[in-house]
Amino acid sequence: MRLRCSACDAVPADPDALACAACGELLAFELDPARYDAYAIEANARLRRASIDPRDRSGVWRFRELLPPIDENAITTLREGDVPLIDGPRGAAHAGVERLAYLHLGMNPTASFKDAGMTVAVSRARERGARVAVCASTGNTAASMAAYAARAGISAVVIAPVDGISAAKVAQTLDYGAHVVAVEGDFDDALRAVRALNPATVAVVNSVNPYRIEGQKTAALVLLEQRGWRAPDWVVMPGGNLGNASAFGKGFREAHAIGLTQRIPRLAVVQASGAAPFAQAWREHRDLVPVKAETDATAIRIGAPASWKKARAEVRASAGTVLDVGDDEIAEARATIGRDGVGCEPASAASLAGLRRLVADGSIARDADVVCVLTGHVLKDTAYAARYHASGAPQANAIVRGVELADYLNLLLLARA
Ligand SMILES: *Cc1c(COP(=O)(O)O)cnc(C)c1O
Ligand SMILES: [Zn+2]
Asked: What is the 3-state secondary structure (H, E, C) of the chain?
């Protein structure tokens, strides 16, 4: 494991730097696949799933040989990462594919995928004796950092835009004892402020921190593990700051290089139309130009994604694609996922909405083997769900009022007969 610049390959002098001193780009860990034995990793993972060591029971730390080395005593885990792959027949019908599975990262301890990265970033912060962790957040990074920092005995400071962040996520973050500092502006402004901090004095745990990416890449391993290490044709996921797309791409690439799986799935990254600078850049074969972001899918309301170059490299390496979908498409996709008994927050549903588009335009075949990544839990944004069901939208499920219960049940029984 070596920390390198993702652009110019320079090796940083400071192991906790967030950017290359030579060129300013993001840093990334690099592993040498020749030093790994796929059979041993697979067998180890199987044994560890039956162990009682908390590290072994974590879907992140179970793969610790593939992570940057961290002192065992600093490891801060809530048994994150071991999330289910669940089939979604209604989602499949919605998108027009024969079958579909959801990788539900909302089943993590604080109910979003951020936990898989945060356990590694906070463990590293603890190892190096950091006393304060800081992040900018659209909500889920905040909740995740707050929980892990609480466990690690580190103070947590969240820089959050005053408007446009789910109240449920703020409440969750306050519960875990973080200091929530409201700032004017949007997420992009908040992240800019955090990136200007000195990483020697505070641990910045946004996804510009390469430890976050290492943790999140294990979601790709957990996905493959549940399929007997057989890769799907496509993995479709939402993209905001684009750390997670970078992490999935890295995870699949490394798994393939080591020989854990025979091929790399194609990555489709889906943005919300009001926050789609990456999709625009992809379509027009040009570099990313930041936009002012606006979407009801607040977790991906990001106009200047920090990891777009890493994500572009991963999408290219996988022969994948990038697109954007409207908020109305996200709303219908989210409602459909709910009807599968799964449930997710709006940003997550961009994946299913994107899949529907890609099937409609012929980019993905109806018989393709597809996994949609759900990034956050339905309870992360109950206000959005409540609004939807009160709205008269196609799948709105309004509360029934003023009926005689026996009559109502009889009608229901007749309808099911
Ligand atoms: C953070 C987040 C995203 C976006 O992930 P990026 O790594 O910023 O692209 C998507 N969905 C949910 C629920 C999130 O919390
Ligand atoms: Zn560099």
From this structure: CEEEECCCCCCCCCCCCCECCCCCCEEEEECCHHHCCHHHHHHHHHHHHCCCCHHHHCCCHHHHHHCCCCCHHHCCCCCCCCCCEEECHHHHHHHCCCCEEEEEHHHCCCCECHHHHHHHHHHHHHHCCCCEEEEECCCHHHHHHHHHHHHHCCEEEEEEECCCCCHHHHHHHHHCCCEEEEECCCHHHHHHHHHCCCCCCCEECCCCCHHHHHHHHHHHHHHHHCCCCCCCCEEEEECCCCHHHHHHHHHHHHHHHHCCCCCCCEEEEEEEHHHCHHHHHHHCCCCCCCCCCCCCCHHHCCCCCCCHHHHHHHHHHCCCEEEEECHHHHHHHHHHHHHCCCCCCHHHHHHHHHHHHHHHCCCCCCCCCEEEEECECHHHHHHHHHHHHCCCCCCCCCCCCCCCHHHHHHHHHHHHC
